[in-house]
Design goal:
The protein is α/β, with parallel strands linked by helices and 202 residues long. It is built from 3 helices and 10 strands; from the N terminus they run ββαβαβββαββββ. It is 19% helix and 38% strand. The two termini are 33 Å apart.
Length: 202
């Protein structure tokens, strides 16, 4: 599905401190039906992988929440429990320090349990690499990773991704849990966000 969702004005700063009014342009990349179809297939594969096993599904806040909920509803596993984590990398936005900041940790022990990390999008892989190493210290039975979106061309740290919904190009995307300044998470589809100078304000 391709098309425009619409425009929204916002003020941003550009070169030499000049302030310009910009339009936010959303172009739909992946429609709601395509997302739901892919989530259903992922759920079937995950259900088969954990057949006869119990599973702890760990959602990474905040972006993964919509994907996680839809995935959970389609899993055919009798013993499924859920938990959440909120993590970020220390250091600047361009250089990873090799450490992670645990803003919200797990509520229960994962020792001896099957853990499935559910993420919205993977790009550099830095944070997830260190998160997986962090979880393995608690001696789980297994740790696997499912992401709805992957940007492999952005990868700096290799992470073992067991299930991927969509490989996507290196574009800024929003919707279905992904945000820009905490907005657009509620959209049921995925759109590319671009900024265009507002000609009306010149």
């Amino acid at each position: 599905v391709q098309g425009y969702w619409g425009y929204k004005k916002c003020s941003i700063y550009v070169f030499k401190g000049e302030r310009k009014l910009m339009k936010e342009k959303l172009t739909v990349l992946i429609g709601e039906k395509e997302i739901q179809s892919r989530v259903e297939k992922l759920a079937a594969e995950i259900s088969e992988s954990y057949k006869g096993e119990s599973l702890l599904v760990v959602g990474i806040l905040r972006g993964a929440i919509m994907f996680m909920v839809d995935l959970l509803k389609k899993l055919e596993i009798n013993d499924v429990q859920i938990d959440f984590m909120a993590v970020s990398s220390y250091g600047s936005s361009t250089v990873s320090s090799g450490k992670i900041n645990i803003k919200k940790d797990l509520s229960e022990s994962i020792e001896g349990r099957n853990v499935l990390i559910v993420e919205d999008i993977i790009d550099t892989g830095n944070t997830l690499y260190h998160l997986i190493e962090y979880l393995k210290k608690d001696n789980p039975k297994s740790v696997k990773l499912c992401t709805l979106f992957d940007k492999p061309e952005r990868r700096e740290k290799e992470v073992p991704v067991d299930w991927v919904g969509f490989d996507i190009p290196n574009k800024f995307i929003v919707g279905y849990g992904l945000d820009y300044a905490q907005r657009y998470r509620n959209l049921p589809y995925i759109a590319e966000l671009a900024f265009i100078e507002d000609e009306d304000e010149k």
